[in-house]
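Final report, closing paragraph on structural work. Over the funding period we assembled a curated collection of sequence-structure pairs, and we close with a single example.
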Amino acid sequence: MSHQVTVQPSGHQYAAEAEETLLAAAIRQSVGLPYGCQDGACGSCKCKLLQGEIELGVHQLKALSEAERAQGFILACRAKALTDVVIESHEVVGVGEFPVKKMPARVSSIEHLAPDVVRVMLQLPAADPLRYRAGQYIQFLLRDGARRSYSMASAPSESPQVELHLRHMPGGKFTDHVFTAMKEKEIQRIEGPFGSFFLRDDPENKPLIFLASGTGFAPIKAILEQMRTNADPREVTLYWGGRKQQDLYLHDWAVQQCAAMPHLRFIPVLS
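Its predicted structure, as stored:
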């Protein structure tokens, strides 16, 4: 059984199946709700329930506090409709522009950028290219049904390769494999693109500030590459933080971009 979801103030409507979250249904039908992690942790998909009933799944309080919940706010990535519902949420132009699809990906290279960070290059099917916006991410589909999300660190291009930056999480189901057993030519299954973190056009060319920590630099690297390719005139300040110097694993690359992009200012931050 499906329920109708109405998004205000746009008035857009779509159907959500019984076991489908409001966000998953929106992504499937190219409705541009904002979102990030899809895991109840970031709060990017926070919206207000105006009418109807939902079942709200497990989430982190930093993403949605009890006080916010009492005010009617919900997380679209953790909410399942029990009736027809009306939610209040702004919509992001371009989120549903490119189709989400599953495809095989061959590991073409693995390069250590730091003791706990690797750059993985994936070769995608040339006949079925992955179209995405710089800043978006893909998910690895693991054999047990689990998923792991990583941002593309390379801007969209005609090349069938994408770059990812993976940090080792000891005990991690996927990164333990990446750092101990993954080989070149290995085949993985991926799905994407996902995410509403990407650069919007701005006719006023207002200055931009990017904040990154660790491998959170990956999507920003893709955006900077895109800005350089497009000769984007906006002033950019990049703050990239870490606990030690090796956490800024592409420090030299960032410095080089400042020479190539006069409007870019890079400020490393070590705690």
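Residues 47 and 89 are 5 Å apart (CA to CA). The mean pLDDT is 95. We thank the funder for supporting this effort.
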